[in-house]
Amino acid sequence: MLLDVPDKCGGVDESANIFLLLVIKSSPSNYERRQVLRQTWAKERLHNGVWIRRIFISATMDTGFQKRRLNKLLKVEQRQYNDILQWDFTDSFFNLTLKQILFLEWMDRNCPHTRFLFNGDDDVFAHTGNMVEYLQSLTDNDGSKHLFTGHLIQGVGPIRIPESKYFVPIQVEESDSFPPYLGGGGFLLSGYTASVIYKMSHTITILPIDDVYMGMCLAKAGLGPESHGGVRTAGLFYPNHPPDKIDEYDPCLYRDILLVHRFLPASMYLMWQILHDPDLDCAPQNK
Ligand SMILES: *[C@@H]1O[C@H](CO)[C@@H](O)[C@H](O)[C@H]1NC(C)=O
Fold first, then answer.
1. In sequence order, what DSSP letters do the residues of 65-130 get, joined into one string?
2. Counting Cβ atoms within 10 Å, is residue 132 exposed (0-12), middle (13-18) or buried (19+)?
3. Shortest CA distance to 51 belongs to which of 9, 84, 13, 108?
4. 48 alpha carbon, distance to own chain's centre
5. Which CA distances in Å does 169 have to 163, 164, 174, 264, 287?
6. Helix (H), strand (E), coil (C) string for 125-174
């Protein structure tokens, strides 16, 4: 481990005071994304009486001088914000499972009683206020029950085309079908479910596709994912509106969602500001 924030949750016992921990996958070079998230949806704050905290999970990039420069950047950011976990391995798509498992191990050690987690990418728009309100509305809202909800993917299996980004050779995964899982762009889980996945990860060989791997861990524990209609990792889609008649950045479309995939830093900043404008006026049909 290169960078750690062992007291992020205030210690093992105090970690119960954190209602939602935002765990954001971020490569060292994504400085602009981290900066805008710190000012927008990932701001550490009290919302509706409960605490939201933020952590970026990162590894290393490049080699030589460039690698050292990027490590230095994270170190400087850490000094100011105290919100980065960094491990010394190559930050790449096929190493994301490793990142996830290392995070769960860290969580088990430092924040075991944290109620809920948001796990996602640094280029999504996450409506963290809505997430808190949704989680508070559950009957079991202390994080001690199973919860794993987001964009559900099922009935798919490994892609055997070597040119694909998601190529999984038969030597790595024999089975032709994956268990149901949640798209890795962003999902919510309880502290309980995080610990179940961590325990199961000791018994399952790593599959280098992180979101599928978490589905495999859950399946082995006899648990499953659940679909949440507010998580739009595939973007917004309104079947009753022709695409040219709909402004995909209309803030009124974002009031009730939990997450939308792919936002550039400037759009993220603007959307967050507009959504929190007390004068935002949305006609009922836009809901
Ligand atoms: C994962 O990280 C290790 C350690 O840095 C590196 O050797 C390996 O090439 C990386 N794997 C991929 C697929 O990038």
1. HHHHHHHHHHHHHHHHH--EEEEEEE--GGGHHHHHHHHHHHHHHH-TT--EEEEEETTSEE-HHH
2. buried
3. 9
4. 21
5. 11, 11, 8, 33, 44
6. EECHHHHHHHHHCCCCCCCCCCCEEEEEECCCCCECCCCCCCECCCCCCC
Q: For residue 185, which of 96, 85, 282, 60 has the smallest C-alpha distance?
A: 96
Segment 53-79, tens digit of pLDDT: 999 999 999 999 999 999 999 999 999
Angle between helices 191-201 and 210-220 (to 10 degrees): 90
Mean pLDDT of the region 159-176: 91
What is the reported pTM?
0.93
Q: Which residues contact 118 (CB under 8 A, 6 or more apart)?
A: 20, 21, 22, 23, 126, 128, 131, 186, 187, 188
Is residue 23 within 8 A of residue 131, CB to CB? The reply is no
Q: Taking residues 211-238, what's their average pLDDT?
A: 88
How far is C-alpha 2 from the geometric centre of its chain's CA atoms? Answer: 21
CB distance 92 to ligand 1 below 6 Å: yes
Tokens matching residue 38: 């710190």
Ordered structural domains, the chain, with CATH: 13-275 (3.90.550)
**What is the separation of C-alpha 122 from the centre of its chain, rounded to a whole number of angstroms?**
8
Type of residue numbered 138: L
Residue from 92, 97, 213 whose mutation best tests the ligand 1 pocket (most atoms within 8 A of CB):
92
Whole-number Å distance, alpha carbon 166 to ligand 1 midpoint, is 16
Q: What is the DSSP letter of 255?
A: S
CA distance 24 to 123: 9
Atom of ligand 1 nearest to the CA of 88: 5
Tokens of 207: 């599959």
